[in-house]
């Protein structure tokens, strides 16, 4: 893992419409509380998979911008 | 038995000092203020180096109450330097494993080992009541003829001068004054010296309170640290269980912010918590009960001219992680060798600045770890709670989530990333402690006998050489075989310059006499490359 790696902000997702649909469907019928829990778990899985601290910190920073 | 509400473990004899009754004020080269573990350890370090030591303390007793019970491997190594380590380990309860539980499950969601590197003399942690530690330190001090502990001599004022300070001491008889070149303020989180000097002590207050119920009962349980998130006996909050000597157990329960302290410690109110852990049928008696809150904060500087702060007087953390006494002890270990060299005229007074640089780094790391643990234990927002619970839920099934579970990151040595005393590496190293890090222990064989490396280091600087032909210098040199574990942990053919506090000052793959000389000079002056 390269520590100098930076966040990929170009299109990188396979079959993006299917993935997006799965994400929305996963929340269907859930209370706000359960949705928040699902999102939290999803983020935890994904940040572990990414692993690279700099990439994750950069994603957090970019997400904070309005 | 108690004194002003403080329970007493052992009474100590008050006596009038020779300085009572006025006349010329005697000038000391240094005075230690405070008789907690940090003040006593500071005094013992200096006494063992041959200095005349005077301790002043408001107490004329060793307080009871288990208080700080967890002593880290680093603290035990320091107690070994002070000659009381083996007594503490013998009396204490050794533990290396911590388990974290969630909800009503009897299977831990996470467990950790406090001593991942085996084959070291001391265990990861030893639990022992604070009064035993203080008692053993006092025993060691009382056995020396260059030590005077002035029990019941309270500092009631300080007049700080450039070269010396004058302390006003109040005792049950009268007041008197003492002058001292250096004042070593080890007088705890409510430091009177800090208050008299009007110095800052800023940080973060955590809105939470915890109940400590130390109880005595006989039951065979493993010597492990058990921590619960959301157990059935303290729903939505946390609990902690720790074993101490003499069949005493530390039970700690999160209570929340708005609590009635007096009500919380009533036996009938504590019983449901205690029974939740012990079960209904175990008989127990209360040993020590306390409700506490905490802050994470430190002084901006620990060195104020010739008044120097150490331990809780200088920095404070939450108890999760056992980073209180365990970070105060390295403070005084660091300070003692520097002050010793200065008093002997072998190092410039500016060496004290490195105490400030190094130990504020230590305090920052401890505060960071302690704050992070506290934010996991007591989430500050709904979202923070959601993430915490998601981590706990995933940790049972998925290995990746377990390291995120934070029930306290237990005290570990804090490396000095920036120190004016360290010489940066010139040579490539694949293994071994870096400059600014503490030496790792390893069994070594000398003339057919086995020793521990940390026990074999000199009280002064030591040149550690692994292999043949160490550089010829006037520094105490320990030449060791680079076969086996020692070579694996330090590298074959390497040379390490080790400070009196067992911190690596410099290291080389191929050291010359001049390399060592330059690094040694830097380590006692802060000057050089």
Helix content of chain B: 25-40%
Strand content of chain A is under 5%
Count of runs of 4 or more consecutive helical residues of chain A: 3
Number of helices of chain B: 13
Oligomeric state of this protein? heterodimer
**Low-confidence region ranges of chain B:** none
Strand content of chain B: 25-35%
Determine the N-to-C terminus distance of chain B.
Answer: 58 Å
Q: What is the CATH T-level topology of one domain in chain B?
A: FAD/NAD(P)-binding domain
Describe the 3D structure.
The complex is a heterodimer of chains A (66) and B (529). Chain A contains 3 helices and no strands. Chain A has helices at 16-26, 32-50, 53-64. Chain A is mostly helical. The N and C termini of chain A lie far apart (30 Å). The model of chain A has no long low-confidence stretch (mean pLDDT 94). Chain A has a domain at 32-66. Among the domains of chain B are: 2-91 and 124-201 and 296-365, 3-Layer(bba) Sandwich (FAD/NAD(P)-binding domain); 443-525, Glutaredoxin (3-Layer(aba) Sandwich). The longest helix of chain B has 26 residues, at 352-377. The radius of gyration of chain B is 24 Å and the shape is globular. The mean pLDDT of chain B is 94. Chains A and B meet through helix 2 of A and helix 10 of B.
């Amino acid at each position: 893992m390269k520590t100098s790696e930076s966040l990929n902000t170009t299109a990188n997702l396979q079959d993006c419409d299917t993935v997006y649909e799965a994400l929305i469907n996963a929340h269907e019928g859930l209370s706000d509380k359960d949705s928040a829990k699902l999102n939290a778990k999803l983020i935890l899985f994904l940040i572990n998979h990414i692993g690279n601290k700099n990439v994750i910190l950069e994603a957090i920073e970019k997400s904070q911008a309005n | 038995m108690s004194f002003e509400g403080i329970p007493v473990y052992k009474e100590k004899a008050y006596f009038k000092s020779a300085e009572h009754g006025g006349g010329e004020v005697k000038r000391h080269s240094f005075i230690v203020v405070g008789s907690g573990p940090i003040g006593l350890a500071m005094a013992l370090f200096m006494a063992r180096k041959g200095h005349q030591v005077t301790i002043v303390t408001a107490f004329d007793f060793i307080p009871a109450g288990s208080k700080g019970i967890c002593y880290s491997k680093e603290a035990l190594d320091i107690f070994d330097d002070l000659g009381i380590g083996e007594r503490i380990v013998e009396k204490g309860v050794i533990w290396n494993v911590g388990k974290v539980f969630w909800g009503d499950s009897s299977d831990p969601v996470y467990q950790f080992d406090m001593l991942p590197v085996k084959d070291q003399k001391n265990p990861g942690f030893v639990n022992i009541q604070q009064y035993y530690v203080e008692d053993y330190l006092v025993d060691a001090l009382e056995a020396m003829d260059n030590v005077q502990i002035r029990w019941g001599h309270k500092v009631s004022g300080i007049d700080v001068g450039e070269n010396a300070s004058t302390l006003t001491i109040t005792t049950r008889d009268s007041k008197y004054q003492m002058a001292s070149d250096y004042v070593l303020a080890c007088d705890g989180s409510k430091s009177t010296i800090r208050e008299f000097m009007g110095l800052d002590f800023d940080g973060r207050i955590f809105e939470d309170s915890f109940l400590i119920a130390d109880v005595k009962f006989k039951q065979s349980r493993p010597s492990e640290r058990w921590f619960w998130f959301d157990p059935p006996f303290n729903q939505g909050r946390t609990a902690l269980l720790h074993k101490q000597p003499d069949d005493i157990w530390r039970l700690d329960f999160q209570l929340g912010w708005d609590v009635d302290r007096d009500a919380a410690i009533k036996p009938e109110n504590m019983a449901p918590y205690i029974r939740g852990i012990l079960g209904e049928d175990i008989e127990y008696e209360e040993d020590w009960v306390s409700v506490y809150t905490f802050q994470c904060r430190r002084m901006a500087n620990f060195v104020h001219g010739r008044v120097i702060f150490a331990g809780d007087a200088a920095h404070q953390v939450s108890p999760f992680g056992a980073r209180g006494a365990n970070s105060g002890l390295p403070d005084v270990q660091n300070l003692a060798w520097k002050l010793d060299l200065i008093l002997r005229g072998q190092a410039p007074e500016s060496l004290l600045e490195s105490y400030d640089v190094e130990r504020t780094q230590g305090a920052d790391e401890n505060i960071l770890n302690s704050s992070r643990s506290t934010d996991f234990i007591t989430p500050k927002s709904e979202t923070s709670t959601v993430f915490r619970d998601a981590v706990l839920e995933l940790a049972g099934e998925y290995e990746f989530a377990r390291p995120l579970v934070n029930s306290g990151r237990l005290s570990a040595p804090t490396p000095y990333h920036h120190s004016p005393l360290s010489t940066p590496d010139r040579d490539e190293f694949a293994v071994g402690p870096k400059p600014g890090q503490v030496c790792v222990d390893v069994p070594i064989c000398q003339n057919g006998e086995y020793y521990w490396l940390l026990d074999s280091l000199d009280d002064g600087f030591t040149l550690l050489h692994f292999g043949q032909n160490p550089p010829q210098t006037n520094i105490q040199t320990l030449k060791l075989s680079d076969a086996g574990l020692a070579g694996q942990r330090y590298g074959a053919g390497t040379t390490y310059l080790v400070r009196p506090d067992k911190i690596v000052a410099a290291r080389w793959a191929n050291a010359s006499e001049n390399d060592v000389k330059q690094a040694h000079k830097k380590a006692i002056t802060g000057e050089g490359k």
